[in-house]
Design brief:
Layout: H1 17-38, E1 47-51, H2 67-87, E2 93-98, H3 114-127, E3 135-138
Parallel strand pairs: 1-2, 2-3
Helix pairs in contact: 1-2
Bound molecules: NADP nicotinamide-adenine-dinucleotide phosphate.
Length: about 150
Amino acid sequence: MAHTLILSVETLASLDFKAVESQFRINAMGPLRVSHALLANLSAGSKIGIVTSRMGSVDDNTYGGYYGYRMSKAAVNMAGMSLARDLFERGIAVALLHPGMVATEMTGRQGIAPQQAARGLIARMDELDLSSTGTFWHAEGERLPW
Ligand SMILES: NC(=O)c1ccc[n+]([C@@H]2O[C@H](COP(=O)([O-])OP(=O)(O)OC[C@H]3O[C@@H](n4cnc5c(N)ncnc54)[C@H](OP(=O)(O)O)[C@@H]3O)[C@@H](O)[C@H]2O)c1
């Protein structure tokens, strides 16, 4: 189904504000809505992993463009950090996770196998605890800059 838009290739010349807004709703508000809806089911020792992207890293933005995608992923990183702070006392840890360049529909099937990315994401979630809550990781184990 073609209802989705999680990444739009925008340059300054092709900036589409409707697409930027849509990416915000899906990529930034979606994970916050889901986390919020499930809060009553979480307790001490629960963990939240948000799949974001290193393209949302301000420090890592070396080639520009992708306005809606980059902005929406930077925003979800901030949502994850606020969740980490707000849920600390309840014993719930939160991680922001970049899966790597993965061969999915979004990338035109370029990149590593989804299974490999999933193994890395699970390993990062297994490592996550309150001492590392509110941190941003590549699935392969590199800590990413904000
Ligand atoms: N692939 C990569 O290299 C890569 C790199 C960095 C980060 N990521 C992140 O990893 C996550 C998964 O991406 P992907 O590569 O698996 O992309 P994908 O193959 O395009 O799949 C996107 C998934 O998101 C769902 N989706 C999109 N818009 C939605 C909406 N409005 N409501 C509900 N579901 C919606 C789609 O549902 P339908 O199947 O129903 O359309 C689909 O299951 C994304 O957050 C992406 O930003 C991916």
